[in-house]
Amino acid sequence: MITLEPLHPDHAEDLLDFERANRAHFARSIPDRGDDYFTGFADRHAALLAEQAAGTCRFHVVRDAAGELVGRVNLVDLADGGAEIGYRVAESAAGRGVATAAVAEACRLAATAYGLRFLTAVTTRDNPASQAVLARNGFAFRHEFLLGDRPALAYRRDLTDLG
After folding, report:
1. Rounded to whole angstroms, how far apart are CA atoms 115 and 118?
2. Is the pLDDT of residue 32 over 60?
3. What percent of the chain is helix, strand and coil (3-state, nearest 5)?
């Protein structure tokens, strides 16, 4: 079982530890955030909280049954009834259904708490686990494109069945 918590100021230390511990794991399937992300983390965290307070984004940490931070799910660029969903799960939690459950809960929240009608998502072509998470959560493939220099896939999920 997992829970999603809205991002709070007191999540900063746990979130930075999570990102550092999983950096190499994430870089295998998505573009690396670079060293500046880690050295400027406090400022970045404050900026995310400001975006969330402004209502343009909704950020969440994912905790497992023991309360450990094992992932994050973000809804960004909320506008015109939609947003883009992004997620990442700790290497130690991979393959246990955490991402699928977290995305399902984020979809439910998007529809019921945030009033969204659809979500979009992207994943790199070489990330079949993420593609499977999206498929299990009702996202439909839309088109291919380049994410930086990596082939990527775009998806969309209608949320009207959840509202």
Report:
1. 9
2. no
3. 40, 35, 30
Phi, psi of 73 (to 5 degrees): -135, 125
pLDDT tens digits for 91-136? 888 889 999 999 999 999 999 999 999 999 999 898 899 999 999 9
Q: What angle do CA 93, 82, 99 make, to 5 degrees?
A: 10
72 DSSP β-pair partners? 61, 88
> Residue 67 in 3-state DSSP?
coil
pLDDT of amino acid 54: 96
H or E segment and range at residue 8: none
d(CA 85, CA 59): 10
pTM value > 0.85:
yes
**Residue 54 in tokens:** 């402004």
H/E run at residue 14: helix 12-21
Q: Which two tokens stand for residue 68?
A: 């450990």
Query: How far is the C-alpha of 15 from the C-alpha of 74, rounded, in Å?
Result: 13
Token code pair at residue 153: 């896939």
